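Researcher: We're teaching a course module on how sequence relates to structure. For the next exercise, students receive a sequence and then see the predicted structure as tokens, so they can try to spot secondary structure elements on their own. Here is the exercise chain.
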Amino acid sequence: MKMDCIVCGKQVFYTWTSIAGINIQRCRSCGVGITTPVPSAEELLEDNSERYIAAEREKIYLPRIRYFQARYHTYIKEIKKFKKAGALLDIGCNLGIFLLSAQKEGFTVTGVELNKSCAEYGRKRYGLNIHSDYLTKIDFPDETFDVITLYDVLEHVPDIKGMLADIRRKLKNDGLLVIQSPNIDSVLARLTKAKWSWLTPPDHLYHFNPSGLASLLISAGFRIEKSRTWEPAEDFCNNITAAYLPRNIAGRAIQKLLRISRICFIVVLFLQRIWWQRQQGGLIQIYAIKDGRHD
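Model: And here is the predicted structure for the students to work with:
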């Protein structure tokens, strides 16, 4: 089946890796990947409702709440280089912990979370304004928000160009869009391929590299202000050991030894700044401004 690349429009794909009958096809021209076969909207919604239930998210976030608060403080510090305050919309806000951090830093916050249990959790526990529906179905007036954030969200979206057009309408003139997405050109992705923990098909439909994601945003009417790659060293180490160590007693013992000794962590901390500068970190972060010249 012929398909057009979402970024460059060409039809030159090859199979980068396969997992349980699901292929990750990559464009030979721009390097962006797509999961095939593409799940239906119903399959995606069912997968989301099962994969991201609030009880499981709570187990991940709450025991490490200080870590995530510190991480989100760093995100907000970077946002404030472009927008000091204003109305912020976080799409795919999960339990709402990032929204809480942004609220404490002076932003007026709103969330969108497709998983109904997570949205309800954020509303009841934290008193946040979280909508549980697709962005296109929520009646936000045009030019409502100063900042819109999508942390680890865009790769899940079937109609990316439609969403970006809607986001652009909802942003004020010179509004800021922040996107984070896994980097298929990263050192980690190249080392682990089918065992890359941020691949997760069929949940992730698209697999971006920095240049491809930037091109997509420019074509959607945004001006790139900053692009960087990064990843938590702990996530890198955990993915590498899970991919290469055997899943037996010996493998678990080695993994525990590495975790206690912190050898892997120290080595990665030393080296990752080098590959970040080469745009090969595991996560892409782009800060883009709504470009009025596109109108």
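Model: If you want an answer key for the exercise: The chain has a mean pLDDT of 92. Residues 65-79 form the longest helix (15 residues).
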